[in-house]
Amino acid sequence: MPPKQKGKEKKKKKQNNEGNELEEKYRRSVLDVAVLKEHLALRTDMALQAKSSREDLRRQLRGLESDLSLERTHKKDITADLNRRHKIMQSDMESRVSQLEIKVIALQQQLAQCQGELRDEREAQTQMREEKESIIRDLQNKLDSMETEYEKILHGSLDSLLSHLMEAQGAWEEESTRIHQEFKDILKDLGLNPLQI
Hints:
The protein is mainly α. Helices cover 96% and strands 0% of the residues.
């Protein structure tokens, strides 16, 4: 019989062991459940925080999108204004360039006209100078010729005058001698000595 008791004991031990194992499993399960609950609570808090963070991020994103939209609108306005100003400046510049080109053409025409007038004036002055020099040469030649002629006439006149003076001198000397002789004769007739007078 003792062996039968051993079997019962073993059975009881086995049942006790099984009961202990069940309790142990139950305790573990309770612990696992508690841990899981804590973990779940932690996850729930994290999920709530994540949701709250997500909402914050969404709000921030909407704010950033709104700011970005405003920036884009502002950029479009600035771009449109700059394009408008650029077109106005380009139009003004093209108008100014066109006016300057017209002015340059007019000034080039005036310059060409002035150069032509200056060339004509120089040619006219050159021609006038040449004509004056020709007239001066002609007048100088005439003057030289007249001077030669006048010298010839003067020399001829002086020679003729000298000849006439010589003739007149001879005649006057004869007349003077005759008159002198007549006075001497008259003085002698009067009884006077001409040498004493």
